């Protein structure tokens, strides 16, 4: 895929997937953010968590377009295995980032509904990764993906970046 199409496709998928999961659904579940904010320390921690999550998410989407020459959407996957940038620390940075954004909103509004939604989405994401993404990546990239999977954790980032041999 050409880089401009990869970027355009990634932007469209960003709006369609994490935009809905981490934006629209929390907004709807919280009564369109009609809730009073939590105490200031929770708001600060929640805002930081959501902001860092959004930064990681944007970076990860950019890596797919620029490094992988594709999109995160299963219908327009990358041509190459994406292992640079934040992917050197964690295999699933998009999912971790989306969950961080949702949990950040749960803290900002001190609402158990958003915390429960984050837990539910985390279970859905982990199941999707295990049953679909990992087998597909193993078929597409073989030993390269297996080496990557053995060296980079799926959900809890490693402190030092992994470097391909």
UniProtKB/TrEMBL annotation:
<keyword id="KW-0812">Transmembrane</keyword>
<protein>
    <recommendedName>
        <fullName>Isoprenylcysteine carboxyl methyltransferase</fullName>
    </recommendedName>
</protein>
<feature type="transmembrane region" description="Helical">
    <location>
        <begin position="90"/>
        <end position="108"/>
    </location>
</feature>
<dbReference type="Pfam" id="PF04191">
    <property type="entry name" value="PEMT"/>
</dbReference>
<dbReference type="GO" id="GO:0012505">
    <property type="term" value="C:endomembrane system"/>
</dbReference>
<keyword id="KW-0472">Membrane</keyword>
<feature type="transmembrane region" description="Helical">
    <location>
        <begin position="38"/>
        <end position="61"/>
    </location>
</feature>
<dbReference type="InterPro" id="IPR007318">
    <property type="entry name" value="Phopholipid_MeTrfase"/>
</dbReference>
<dbReference type="InterPro" id="IPR052527">
    <property type="entry name" value="Metal_cation-efflux_comp"/>
</dbReference>
<keyword id="KW-1133">Transmembrane helix</keyword>
